[in-house]
Amino acid sequence: MSDPLPPNAIAVRVGCRLAYETSRPTAALLLIRPHPDVVMLDESLSCDTGSQADHFTDHHGNRMLRTILRPGLNEFVHDAILIVPGTTEEPALYAPMDASERLPWEVLRYTFPSRYCESDKLGQFAQQTFGSIPPGAGLAQAICDWTHHHIEYRYGSGNSHLSAADVIDRRYGVCRDFAHVMVALCRALDMPARYVAGHMPYRGVAEHDIGIDFHAWCEVFAGGRWHTFDPRHNKSLPGRVKIAHGMDAVDAAFATFYGQASCVTFQVWSYQVDPVRERAGDPVSIIRGGNGSAEEVAGACFDAFRVRPPLLHPASPQASSPAPLRG
Fold this sequence. Notes:
Layout: E1 9-22, E2 26-30, E3 39-48, E4 54-57, E5 63-69, E6 72-85, H1 105-108, H2 123-130, H3 137-150, E7 152-153, H4 164-170, E8 172-173, H5 175-188, E9 193-199, E10 215-222, E11 225-229, E12 241-246, E13 255-258, E14 262-273, E15 283-284, E16 286-288, E17 294-296, E18 302-303
Parallel strand pairs: 7-8
Antiparallel strand pairs: 1-6, 1-14, 2-5, 2-13, 3-6, 4-5, 9-10, 9-12, 10-11, 15-18, 16-17
Helix pairs in contact: 3-5, 4-5
C-alpha cells in the first residue's frame, strides 16, 4: 500500500474512552469528534447508552452528539486517524486589527463577554497592561506572552467555576484557564478571540496535557483570518487537532449533562502514527506514565474497541443554548 500522506503532512491518531454512571435517564451532549475542517482517513465511534445517538452541527460549526444515558453504566469510545500539517503554524504578527464595523457577524460575536471570559470586567486592566501596544496580531502575541509568564501551570488544579478574572487573581491554572485569560484580554481590547478545545498529539515531548488529555488554546482574528495562539505552551506545536471552538469552555465542553452523571472512565490518546500500519479501532499504544505525562509502550496497551458500528444519522441543528459545563 502506498503512503497516502501529502507533502509536509503527518498522520495522527486521536480518541477517547469516556464512561459515566447515572441513576436515572439523563440527556447528554458530547463534543468528541474532530471539527469538520480536519481531514479524516479513518474513524470509529461507539455509543453504548441504550438510546439512539443523533449527530448535528451546532451554531459554531462543531460536530455534536446528543443522546440519553440509561441508568447504570454508559460508555463512549471515539477513535480516528487524521491528516494534519507536519509543520508549525506561526501567527502573522504583522497582521493588523480589523475595524469592528467591518467584521462579519460570525466574527463580531467573538468580541462579546461570556460566562468564563468576562472581558467587560477586565477593560481597565487590559488597557493599563497592553494599551501602549499597537492593535493587531502583535498585540495578541503580547497577551499570549503575558499569560504564559504570569499564570503558573498546575496540573489538576482545574475548577469549572473559575473565570478569566478569577485566574488572573489567583495566578495559576490549567490549559483551559490560560485560554480563557487570553481570550478575555483580547476581547477587552476589542479583538475577536475564541476558545478552542482539541488534541495535542504526543511526538516525543512529555507534558501533562500532550497526548493523554484534551487540550485548550485560542484563536484571534486579525488581518482577515484566524491565528492560533497557545498561551499554555507559548509556542507553535505541529499536529494540533481542533474538536470545537466557541465563546468559552461552555461551547467546547467534551461532555454536558442535563442531570447528574459520574465519570468512571476517562482515557484520551493522541499521537503520531503510520497510517499504513495503524487504523482506528486497533489497540492503543500510549498511556499516562508514572509522572503523569504520556509514555509509549512496546506493543499494544489496551483495545480501544473491536466492534466498528456505523456512525448514526445526523439530526437538525440545535437551536437552544448549551447547558453549563459539567464534564
